[in-house]
Prior knowledge:
The structure holds two protein chains of two kinds.
Chain A: E1 7-8, H1 13-41, H2 47-50, H3 52-75, E2 77-80, E3 84-89, E4 94-100, E5 106-110, H4 113-118, E6 120-127, E7 130-138, H5 139-158
Antiparallel strand pairs in A: 1-2, 2-3, 3-4, 5-6, 6-7
Helix pairs in contact in A: 1-3
Chain B: E1 9-10, H1 14-42, H2 46-73, E2 75-79, E3 82-87, E4 93-98, E5 102-109, H3 111-116, E6 118-125, E7 135-141, H4 142-157, E8 169-173, H5 176-184, H6 189-206, H7 209-219, H8 223-250, E9 254-258, E10 261-266, E11 271-277, E12 281-288, E13 297-304, H9 311-315, E14 316-322, H10 326-333, E15 344-345, H11 351-377, H12 389-402, E16 404-408, E17 411-417, E18 421-427, E19 431-438, H13 440-444, E20 447-456, E21 459-469, H14 470-479, H15 482-493
Antiparallel strand pairs in B: 1-2, 2-3, 3-4, 5-6, 5-11, 6-7, 8-9, 9-10, 10-11, 12-13, 12-18, 13-14, 15-16, 16-17, 17-18, 19-20, 20-21
Helix pairs in contact in B: 1-2, 5-8, 6-8, 11-12
Amino acid sequence: xxxxxxxxxxxxxxxxxxxxxxxxxxxxxxxxxxxxxxxxxxxxxxxxxxxxxxxxxxxxxxxxxxxxxxxxxxxxxxxxxxxxxxxxxxxxxxxxxxxxxxxxxxxxxxxxxxxxxxxxxxxxxxxxxxxxxxxxxxxxxxxxxxxxxxxxxxxxxxx
Amino acid sequence: xxxxxxxxxxxxxxxxxxxxxxxxxxxxxxxxxxxxxxxxxxxxxxxxxxxxxxxxxxxxxxxxxxxxxxxxxxxxxxxxxxxxxxxxxxxxxxxxxxxxxxxxxxxxxxxxxxxxxxxxxxxxxxxxxxxxxxxxxxxxxxxxxxxxxxxxxxxxxxxxxxxxxxxxxxxxxxxxxxxxxxxxxxxxxxxxxxxxxxxxxxxxxxxxxxxxxxxxxxxxxxxxxxxxxxxxxxxxxxxxxxxxxxxxxxxxxxxxxxxxxxxxxxxxxxxxxxxxxxxxxxxxxxxxxxxxxxxxxxxxxxxxxxxxxxxxxxxxxxxxxxxxxxxxxxxxxxxxxxxxxxxxxxxxxxxxxxxxxxxxxxxxxxxxxxxxxxxxxxxxxxxxxxxxxxxxxxxxxxxxxxxxxxxxxxxxxxxxxxxxxxxxxxxxxxxxxxxxxxxxxxxxxxxxxxxxxxxxxxxxxxxxxxxxxxxxxxxxxxxxxxxxxxxxxxxxxxx
Lengths: 159, 495
């Protein structure tokens, strides 16, 4: 196994991840805030205990909006080699996945509304056991990666 | 009945009755509870009884008519290299499944089918999913079933040669005694218990709450004794239910092989015949259940690609056999999977992680229990759960001891324990992806988790080893690559 895959994701990935993490945190923040409010208002608990839910949720939000995207981006690497696709990712758990091109059944690119705004796309490739993806590549690079995987898969089939 | 060309065939006329009965059952089961409640609330006047009977007659007549119409609208056949099924009374549909996509032709014989001596035939597809659903024919005669089988499998077997196959060779039968043992050790008491729970809820509906209150009031002083009697009784009943379920499902179990196909026949009330093409088996798992391992018993399962919702038919290859005989059976049934190399154990430094992981539930239980009991009784009774720690630690040690892996030629062998000790075998060319996971704690100990996926049913199923040395994990990920394969082949082809 080689040391590390060579390619990185597009740097704009961090922005997209921050925004989507912030959007995801809104309901949780509301829940935490309401929890604290309820504790302080209706339950007879000390102020310190009462603000605990709100604080916990706030800490989680800060982590997932400001810290995690940077770490995730630095960790995320991929490489499309002639025989395998090599992926490395993970904030806490680092995972390294190798997918033989000969097992890939089809490959497509996807783009969510937020990604479209920043000109990013996700490459998704499917094997008989499920899908893997390379997220947040700039759209031209994603298309190139998709076509390259498709071509290499065809070559592998002919071997 | 020619299978190559010609018109499509009709189902056996029993399909009308089976279809009608199905319709009646569906409509009755949808209305039975509200219907009964309505009847009892109105009182049983002759007028309401007549009304209900009239309703039943109308339903029966409509169901019979519908059964006839759908029988007339349904036809099937093997035409020009594909299986075709035409059906639908109002909304006509025609399904075409290319023969090379057919995984197997399975039969199920329910009680109604047995009464008519016909079979429900299911044409299962490989890698189907939503785009290519399986086809089910509710009633075919024995001869028609055989014809269809020959039409479909004959086409697929063509390259083997036209001469007559030697006929299926029986590899394993299970006696009723085997099945009683299998049921008794299946550990499915939990399933049976939940069935009992559902049953008791239904029971509740029919008895008034007052009845139960009286019962509880009269029994309350002896609550302890009642509990002592009731709990073992329920457990025993559940256990018997699990045994009965196993015997019913697997009665007359026969595993046989003909050419590249395995056939499994089983069932007492509902006879099932399943086919597993050897070429579709992705992995084999030998499972030594918690209750079975002490007796040297195991069960055998296969992961097969393209088996959808009806996985139960094929997934259990042999429900019970002595562990010692597994390799001999596999050599005959699926030689590619017959390996039992010495497994490489995990490094000692992984033991601590296994024990810790096993103890977490006990610690959480103790903490939560302590908090609750402190709030309720002012005494931290919950801390007593700490007493469970040695048992959990022992479980962790067991899991550590049983985990291991080996690369035997082209095959990956992986063993782990949840409750049962499971040994999985998969050839390299079946692995869909390989991953190495590492948490910061694992990195500090130079450990990693290796996982790989094989296709199974509509999705995947994983084979993994937790906490092996990180070098070993990287070695496995590399050694199982296609490139490794190519290099070996190159070497192999040199003089």
